[in-house]
Q: What sequence folds into this?
């Protein structure tokens, strides 16, 4: 057993296992030879018998070594000096056993007291169960409760002496002492009467503590709460059934209102208690005054208890569906607003798609509002585990200080783009950068059918515009979402606010942005210059030259100069258009 409480196999057991594995391989090889290769049958039988004996010896040796190793590890285990009740799973499991002991006593004490289910033939069984439950109480007190850590001044106290003193002076210790009083000794004077164990029901702390902690571990705790509330109602009916049988016993089972010794006693009495508690009625009419009073009390208590149970079930269901009701309310309000203002049907359908997809994937519409309720430290811890991998893959943030990334995580805002949406368009002023977390976007031309590249989760774009290096704060490409795409947005104002506390990181980021911009510009090949001068005219039939060209231009008329200027402008526009198309392809 290591420091973390995990069980590790010793080297001896590991070597034995490897030896046993080799023996198994040898056994398989011999079986293969026996089945598929020819040879002397007598030698095969002898070899087979020897292999079987050797295998049995090796198996017995391996099992013995494993048992010895496990025994040593169990014997060497040491119980922790103190226990954290909020995180220790062994403590939670023992509270579950203590809760079962309480439930056993709560059900069986009234059952055995009222019904004739405890007889001399099965008395030893009941007493064995009783003392097993008592042993659970004792172990819980002397092994767990005195080691139970507590909070003092905001600090978890782990000193075993302090935990013991805190428990001994607590109200919990007093209740545990009352629950463990040896009232069974009164059996000597009054006989084995289960009612003498009624003090065992005082110890309810473990039961409620287990329920509170167990609910926190469940994904759908409302189902457990509804089931527990239903069990409370069934237990009240159980007590009423025991009381009904006891009243029938007092009347010698002769009252028409009571139990008349027909059928199974517990089932008949439980049926009567159920019909009375849920106020269904259709039960025998009382005869005596006491029976009338009992019936009136049962009806009143049934109405009161049943209304409490229904209220708790309603609250549990409401808490489980509160977010869904909020989603429906916001969706319906938005649809009403769009219809009243005659919003185009195409936009209405996109809004409906956004509501449905966001709810089906996240079960919440505003993730940011939920996280804002938490302290910044807790928010950061959650963001680190969820989004750190994505942010650390962004090229511009690589090799940056981790604290910078932690601060940026708090400013990342999720946004969903629907099929057909443009994330950004060419020429727009860039005030944010994007990180793809789910889905895919495409770099497209003037139409979405012209696709230059596809960007997948973990890819970021818009970094250069975010830092506005060299005045490059305008988008140079169209980014299109062909499906449902979830992005994280980091706004320029948020980045600048974080970089104020990280001046060195600001220099690094701007340096990286310049290198990225320079690298992008180096990929763009400028178009070859087009001469705006006319082709030199060779008037002498020989070689021309600059002087001849100048003389030729000087002899041109004004009309010829206008034609030359128009020709030059056309060539320049064509060159600019070609250069822009190449830049779009590279983006």
A:
């Amino acid at each position: 057993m290591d420091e973390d409480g995990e069980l590790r196999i010793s080297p001896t057991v590991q070597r034995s296992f490897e030896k046993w594995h080799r023996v198994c391989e040898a056994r398989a090889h011999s079986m293969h030879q026996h089945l598929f290769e020819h040879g002397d049958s007598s030698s095969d039988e002898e070899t087979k018998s020897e292999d079987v004996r050797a295998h049995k010896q090796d198996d017995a040796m391996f099992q013995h070594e494993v048992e010895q190793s496990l025994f040593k590890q169990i014997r060497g285990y040491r119980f922790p000096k103190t226990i954290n009740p909020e995180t220790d799973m062994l403590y939670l499991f023992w509270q579950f056993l203590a809760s079962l002991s309480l439930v056993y006593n709560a059900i069986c004490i009234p059952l055995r007291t009222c019904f004739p289910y405890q007889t001399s033939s099965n008395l030893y069984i009941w007493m064995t169960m009783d003392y097993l439950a008592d042993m659970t109480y004792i172990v819980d007190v002397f092994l767990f409760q005195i080691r139970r850590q507590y909070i003092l001044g905001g600090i978890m106290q782990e000193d075993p002496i302090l935990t013991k003193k805190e428990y001994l002076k607590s109200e919990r210790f007093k209740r545990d002492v009352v629950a463990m009083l040896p009232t069974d000794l009164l059996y000597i004077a009054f006989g084995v009467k289960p009612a003498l164990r009624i003090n065992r029901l005082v110890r309810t702390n473990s039961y409620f503590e287990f329920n509170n902690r167990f609910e926190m571990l469940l994904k759908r705790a409302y189902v457990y709460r509804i089931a527990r509330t239903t069990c409370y109602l069934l237990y009240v009916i159980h007590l009423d059934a025991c009381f009904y049988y006891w009243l029938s016993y007092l009347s010698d089972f002769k009252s028409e209102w009571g139990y008349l010794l027909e059928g199974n006693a517990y089932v008949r009495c439980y049926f009567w208690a159920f019909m009375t508690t849920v106020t269904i009625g259709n039960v025998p009419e009382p005869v005596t005054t006491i029976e009338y009073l009992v019936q009136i009390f049962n009806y009143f208590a049934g109405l009161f208890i049943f209304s409490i149970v229904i209220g708790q079930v309603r609250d549990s269901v409401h808490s489980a569906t509160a977010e869904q009701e909020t989603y429906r309310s916001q969706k319906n309000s938005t649809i009403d607003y769009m219809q009243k203002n005659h919003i185009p049907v195409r936009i209405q359908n996109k809004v409906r798609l956004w509501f449905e997809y966001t709810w089906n994937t996240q079960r919440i519409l505003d993730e940011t509002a939920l996280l804002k309720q938490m302290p910044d430290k807790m928010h950061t811890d959650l963001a680190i585990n969820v989004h750190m991998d994505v942010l650390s893959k962004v090229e511009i943030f690589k090799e940056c200080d981790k604290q910078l990334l932690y601060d940026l995580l708090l400013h990342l805002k999720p946004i969903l783009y629907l099929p057909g949406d443009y994330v950004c368009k060419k020429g727009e002023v860039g005030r944010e950068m994007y990180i793809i977390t789910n889905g895919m976007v495409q770099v497209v031309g003037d139409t979405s059918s012209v696709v230059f590249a596809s960007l997948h989760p973990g890819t970021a774009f818009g970094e250069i515009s975010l830092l506005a290096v060299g005045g490059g704060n305008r988008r140079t490409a169209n980014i299109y979402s062909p499906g449902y795409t979830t992005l994280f947005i980091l706004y320029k104002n948020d980045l600048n606010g974080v970089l104020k506390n990280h001046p060195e990181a600001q220099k690094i980021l701007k340096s990286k942005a310049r290198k990225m911009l320079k690298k992008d510009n180096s990929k763009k090949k400028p178009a070859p210059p087009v001469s705006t001068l006319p082709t030199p005219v060779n008037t002498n039939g020989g070689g021309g030259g600059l002087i001849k060209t100048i003389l030729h231009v000087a002899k041109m008329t004004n009309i010829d100069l206008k034609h030359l200027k128009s020709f030059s402008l056309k060539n320049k526009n064509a060159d600019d258009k070609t250069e822009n198309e190449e830049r779009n392809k590279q983006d």
Remarks:
- Strands lie at 150-152, 155-157, 413-417, 422-424, 432-438, 441-444, 451-455, 460-461, 478-480, 485-491.
- Residues 41-75 form the longest helix (35 residues).
- The chain has six domains: 11-75, 80-217, 219-320, 323-362, 379-523, 546-586.
- The chain is about 60% helix and 5% strand.
